[in-house]
Amino acid sequence: MLALVVASTFWSMVAYAGPLGNAVTLSAALDASAAGTTWVLASMSVGLAVTLLAAGVVADALGRARVFALGAMVFAGANVVCAVVGSTWPFVVARVVVGLGAAGMIATGLGLLAAADGDGRHRSTSAVWWSAAMGAGIALGPLLTGVLDLAGAWRWFYVGLALAGTLLYALAGRVLPVEPAAERARRLDLVGFTLLTAFLALLVTAIVQVRAGGPMLAAVLLGGSVLLLVALGLSQRRPQRLVDPGIFTHRPFLGATIAGLGTGLGIIAASSFLCTVLVRAVGLSTFQAAGVLAAWSGTSALAALALVRHGPRIPGRVQLTAGLVGVAVGLVLLAGVGDPVSAWRFVPGLVVCGCASGLLNAGLARQAVATVPGGLAATGTAANNTARYLGAAVGISVASVTAGTDLLAGWNRVALLAAACSLLAALAVAWLSRGERAPGVAGARTGTWRTAAE
Predict the structure, then answer these.
(1) What parts of the sequence cross the membrane (predicted)?
(2) Which of 88, 147, 167, 364 has the most CB atoms less than 10 A away?
(3) Tens place of pLDDT for every residue, the chain, 454 residues?
């Protein structure tokens, strides 16, 4: 089961990061406009951000194994479409659906592992492997598309992803246990589910539209998302709700969620913008830029693996705080570049960010499950990752506005702003962790969790 969950995370991240390695070729092949190119690169992020939380809620209500298998099937089918379409918007829609399928696997994987083995040390080890798979997938995706691009075979990337999704679906039926109905959290709140999905869809679309150059449409979409958020809040006053509201008053859960948000606003947003800087200001190809960024993502995977033995001894809250502070230090090292600049100038800061990210991602995976009751493990994982991808969407949009026309000077501002976001998130996690006695295991595991009803 651990191997299956790790493989699903790895292939999801390969799919997520892949277009960074051949963005120019992909844009030309699909005849994409500037706005279309923005959507091509952002489409899977949109699918993940919009559906992760909903997938987690559905999984806790209807069964995690079912949602995992369905996610793998959707992932495979949507990648087949990506491999055969020849224009921008069908490709964008298919990539959004790829994100939906990946969300089904990401939201449920750690919850399935937690349900199978409640030992805290084993959960921590599982989180380390999950984190390593995430870093390795982000590192390999752009390199793989870059190599295929050199051979003029970019469509085979999506064929490979479809085959991987098919294999994951086949193995899910053999490996994953179907949870008894008694273990599921509650009946699904269809009204709340619909409003939540619609709210996130409008919000994320508005954020991406800012980058695509449509401020009026973005404002309309943002206004609609606010109305849907109000409606969602009103709907949760009914007896049947999406989740127990007590989860949002639980400090360790809030700390883990803020850490996820800080990760998106910080290192993920900065590294995504750095790819543009390396191509347009430094003069690298997208493939070469992906190789430079691997100093971050690859180091992250190696750092996570180094925690397999010692990670369980480090409290989860310490992993989050130290990881965020380390990322902030690395981002400061990445700032201060001038013209001309060599690509090697960025490597030391990326390595520091990678080491810190390995610790941070392992802590996020661990705390996402440990800070909620066992019946809401998928919801906890989904909430954490939703915060991460929403933070990334906001951070990348802010970076594009902050940078201006001088990319190198703009990069310095972006790096420092991302460092500030990481540091603020670290301070918030430290403040919310005051008085927490059980290292890495929140009240949901120690008996101090209290629902609103209690």
Answers:
(1) 33-55, 67-86, 92-115, 127-144, 156-176, 188-210, 216-234, 254-281, 287-308, 320-337, 343-365, 386-408, 414-432
(2) 364
(3) 999 999 999 999 999 999 888 888 888 899 988 778 888 888 898 888 888 888 888 887 778 899 999 999 999 999 999 999 989 999 999 999 999 999 999 988 887 887 776 555 666 778 888 888 998 999 999 999 988 988 889 999 999 999 999 999 999 989 988 765 544 445 667 787 788 888 888 888 888 888 777 778 888 989 999 999 899 888 877 766 766 666 777 888 899 999 999 999 999 989 888 888 898 889 888 888 889 999 999 999 998 888 766 666 788 888 999 999 999 999 999 999 988 889 999 999 999 999 999 999 988 888 887 777 766 777 788 888 888 888 888 888 888 778 877 889 999 999 999 999 999 999 999 998 876 544 333 334 433 444 333 3
Q: How far is CA 303 from CA 20, 202, 346, 358, 439, in A?
A: 23, 36, 19, 5, 21
Tell me if 429 sits within 8 A of 255, measured CB to CB: yes
What's the CA gap between 281 and 176, in Å, rounded? Answer: 48
CB contact at 8 A, 366 and 440: yes
For 100, the token pair is 């939906």
**Residue length of the chain:** 454
What does the block give as tokens for 226?
């606010």
Q: Helices 2-17 and 155-175 sit at what angle, rounded to 10 degrees?
A: 160
CA dist., res. 189 & res. 319, Å (int): 34
Token pair of 326, please?
């380390």
How far apart are the C-alpha atoms of 173 and 85, rounded to whole Å? 30
Rounded CA-CA distance 45/100 in Å is 9
Which letter does DSSP use for residue 433 in this model?
T
Cis amide prior to 439 (ω within 30 degrees)? no
The residue among 159, 110, 45, 40 whose CA lies nearest residue 377 is 110
Q: What sign does the CA torsion over 159, 129, 143, 138 have? A: positive
Structure tokens, 272: 């995504």
* Cβ atoms 402, 410 nearer than 8 A: yes
pTM for the model: 0.84
Question: In the 3-class helix/strand/coil scheme, how is 119-184 assigned residue by residue?
Answer: CHHHHHHHHHHHHHHHHHHHHHHHHHHHHHHHCCCCHHHHHHHHHHHHHHHHHHHHHCCCCCHHHC
